[in-house]
Amino acid sequence: MKNNIRVERxxxxxxxxxxxxxxxxxxxTINAIEAEKYVPSTVLALKIARSFNKSxxxxxxxxETDL
Length: 67
Prior knowledge:
Layout: E1 2-3, H1 5-12, H2 16-23, H3 27-34, H4 42-51, H5 56-59, E2 60-61
Antiparallel strand pairs: 1-2
Helix pairs in contact: 2-3
């Protein structure tokens, strides 16, 4: 699953740690999601999207291999 969390963080000028604090996870979790090594739970994906004031679909997208 692809995501554009890094881009959205840059727009808001927030760090991985600041995003992690907003959604209640560790900085390492945010790093793993950004690196596409970890797929977040539905609840976490919703929290991340909400922190950017965007829909989940604007932050996350499926890849061909996910279908």
